[in-house]
Design a protein that fits this description.
Order of helices and strands: HHHHH
Shape: flat
Helix content: 40-55%
Radius of gyration: 16 Å
Distance between the termini: 21 Å
Oligomer: single chain
Number of strands: 0
Number of helices: 5
Length: 73
């Protein structure tokens, strides 16, 4: 999150990582509430690999972005 803030020219605030605490107090529940309550995690990293086969034709085109955003191919 710090790199994203730096990229956007925003100052990092520890409250940015505390959204899970605020989510528990919400009056309106949404389908994503369960995910938000768990807070930040790495569980989504690498999920794109499930789509690797259909992406093969464009992987060369995506390579600069993979490198720029530090994805692990």
């Amino acid at each position: 999150m710090r790199r994203i803030c730096a990229f956007l020219g925003l100052d990092w605030s520890p409250a940015m990582g505390d959204f899970a605490l605020r989510t528990k107090d919400r009056a309106v529940l949404t389908p994503s509430t369960a995910q938000l309550v768990r807070g930040l995690s790495t569980e989504g990293l690498g999920q794109w690999r499930r789509y690797r086969a259909p992406l093969v034709p464009v992987l060369r085109l995506l390579d600069p972005w993979v490198k720029r955003f530090y994805y692990d191919p």
